[in-house]
Amino acid sequence: MGFLDYVILGIYFLCVLGIGFAARRSIKTSLDFLLSGRALPAWVTGLAFIAANLGATEILGMAANGAQYGVATVHYYWVGAIPAMVFLGIVMMPFYYGAKVRSVPEFLRLRFNDSTHLLNSIIFALSAVLIAGVNLYALAIVMRAMLGWQLWFSIVIAALFVLAYITLGGLSSAIYNEVLQFFVILAGLIPVVVLGLKEMGGWGGLEDRVRGAKGGGDAHLHAWQGTGVGHVTNSIGANWIGIVFGLGFVLSFGYWTTNFAEVQRALSARNSSAARRTPLIGAFPKLFIPALTVIPGLIALVVVPKLGDTPDGGYNNAIPYLIERYLPTGILGVAVTGLLAAFMAGMAANVSSFNTVFTYDIWQQYVAKDRDDEYYLKVGRVVTAVGVLIGIGTAFIASGFSNIMNYLQALFSVFNSPLFATFIIGMFWKRMTPKAGFAGLLSGTIAGLFVYLGYKFWGIFDFKSDLEESFYGAGSAFVVDAVVSVVVSLVTKPKPAEELVGLTYGAGTREAASDLVVGDQTWYRSPVVLGAAALVLAVALYIPFL
User: Fold this and answer.
1) Which of 68, 89, 201, 524 is deepest in the core (most CB within 10 A)?
2) pLDDT digits (tens, 9 = 90+) for 334-353
């Protein structure tokens, strides 16, 4: 990087801190700090919703998958994200927002009991700091490659910046920075894609070179070929059942509908209509993100012969290598800033959700009840610092994985998949009991962990790839949770119907007429119209890659 690149980077960091100071003026209560006072418009929360997911783990991890597994990586978007985002906006947000819960675990407390609530709070807090560590490690990769900084120094410096702007302005600071970061990420990655495709001679030239590349081949260029049961020849080593059920249903729905780091953005919207449209607005940019992740991964496979062979050539380095190869001074600074923005968006999402769950769902509920609001505001700020410090520690766990997306999918299969089973059964079956909620969630989490350990360390399971393990690990966690939930429900006592209003289908709704805003009823703002359009586009985008 040259002087101009550092100037661009410096301007970005000043903007980030400036947003933090500006947001600080609106922080008067713990709800302001932890949920933006539920006052943000849909376009802001929608862009923040997708930017929170578009972290460094997404950029580096999905590019790594693009290089390692090829075009099949698009399943994580068009099957593994869009349907679940549509389901969240149309079906689940009316329950979340109508119940006026401050977090996903709090919904479980209302629907089931304190035991289920505490278990989920602890599981989520653990997963949040582990994923925050992945974002920190991903950033350190970029800093080491682009700036020559040591791993530990990169992690500490980056963590301090995130700590500063979240502690200053809370969730509002995180969300408005995520909107800024979304556009910075696009500005940084689009030149890499354009210049890479130009060198390849366009998409057709890239296809020809991938077919002949080491680690590539024709299978790298198709999404659904080679996924027949018993005749698996695709790059990810999974049949269509694993892809559709394990990824498209369990992993995807488990992440997008129950992961509070995402749902928190929708809960900060100013009304129910804006909350429902939040994930649907985010779905449209999500459809086209593969152009910025999968395509660079394929280009890196061609132009970086050592990719995947050595620690320095790990798949995680695909994007940094391309930035170094293609971008001159000035544009290089924009690209590096984009990657730093991606990291900060991802980590901020996990830290801001961690401090909310710990403050409201653990500390206020079980440790220090009935204190004044100023006390919980102080707790939220302190917990933010604690979450960042723990994230620094968990970053070194992530450093042991050559493909951080494999690590992330393993985390999701253990933590999110059983939670989705508990949620979906509890929302649609009034007979599910409080004891079933706890037993199902605990047993499903243990089942997902057992499959992962059995594959990685105990030699019990033989999967063709880490991704295939995450598909079947997620499916196992979901099925075990569902079976245990049903069995326990049949032998235990359910909640009275009047306690389930607004929490499950068929028990009535809590949505108030005041939540509906004039103008939100126009056809192009309809959640059903937006959701249907996103699904049609997802199917259409598959056609060239069948």
Assistant:
1) 89
2) 888 887 777 777 777 888 88
